[in-house]
Design brief:
heterodimer, A: alpha/beta, Rossmann fold, 7-stranded mixed β-sheet, globular, B: 5-stranded antiparallel β-sheet, 10 helices, flat
Amino acid sequence: MQTVKMVVTGPFNAGKTEFIRSVSEIDVVSTERKVSSIGEREVKESTTVAMDFGRITVDDDLVLYLFGTPGQKRFDFMWEILSEGMLGFIVIVDSNRPETFREARSILETFRAYAPTPYVVAANKQDKNDAWEVEDIRHALRLDPNIKLLPCLATNRDSVKKILLELLYSILVEMEDGKFK
Amino acid sequence: MALRGNLRDISFTQILNLVNLAHKTGTLILESPGETAQVSFREGKLTFAQVGNESNNLASVLNKTKKISAAQYRAIVQHGSNISDKELGLMLINAGIISKDEILLSLQQNCTDIVHRMFTWVEGLFRFENDMLPPEDRINVRLDLENLIIEGSRQLREWELLQDEIPSLEMALKFTDRPGADMKKINLSVEEWRVVSYITPKNTMQQIASVTKMNDIEVRRIIFGLLQAGLVEIVRPSGQPAVGVIHSFPTEHKEEQLSLVNRLINRIRSL
């Protein structure tokens, strides 16, 4: 049995767990705990402390694992561990919370430093009234025009599928260009 | 959709950059503690700026920039309070008191001064109201944002430089092996000595920041100085293994890798 993995990362409460949950064929093995910080508790009650784990069986011989990183900075020691051997990664950004954009940028750069694999950025919660427009988020994150930044609803399977496919297409392109080792 | 947030997270310079790149039209409303401001743009150009209730009409601006005398200003305030800026401007031009270019230059200078003040606002709410423009009776200017952004960027540059030089505080420091270097002969500030006293490959920069109760920028600034002086170098914390080459694919054969990705694509499509 061959296995490959992708990492789903992003700031606290960006929607990483929902993203994996939307496509995983197993109930996501989550390590959520009650949020300890008062400020963060106002945003959500529980958070991922080690990782989320989802699975998509491709065929008899191949399985794709999706790993979600903990969003809180104090658990970032897990990031390097989770990034080992990843095929690519997805950075999820909460389109409603510009205060997390800088952190998203930092997470993105950290993962790029760990492994220069292809990646895409998903602008989640685009259905909310206060959501920033995708191109505004691109400017705020200082993303090059050639980096894929896609609107996303992490709770919607089709939307999540589109993000995963775009990442796979990027991997294909890099393989064809001979950039991907 | 809303463009809103806090200046603590998105700086005023970043907002200007966004407005400039996206050629936005509308008004940016800023509410910092105790002060408010409105800055308007048309297609990414600065057109108008006002802080709080400060008098910002044409007469005030011309008075401030000494384009009209105090007596002329008083006369306008007393007798011309009902006329719009555009009407006043036309009257002053027709009367030969001032030229059109002088009016525009004065208004541009006023807008620029206000925007320069905004760069010092690092805390406060902002929101961008699409298509909201300044009152029609006001004379709008049309200023490129690039120069203003450059000015603001100077203030951000230090932070970015520090981040570039020291991207992660998870690394450690060690003293360089330079023969003849003697720390005791070097003049260091109290803060620098506090940092120096914790430098060892066992301590990450984050730990040093924590124990010295310094924030990221303070500790980076000091470490940057020590790095530039060649006194220390960045090393991986002792006991931590170097990251090896980890293969993403379970196979090294290119054809098999391609097949694998295509199988993944087909599977995701079928979900």
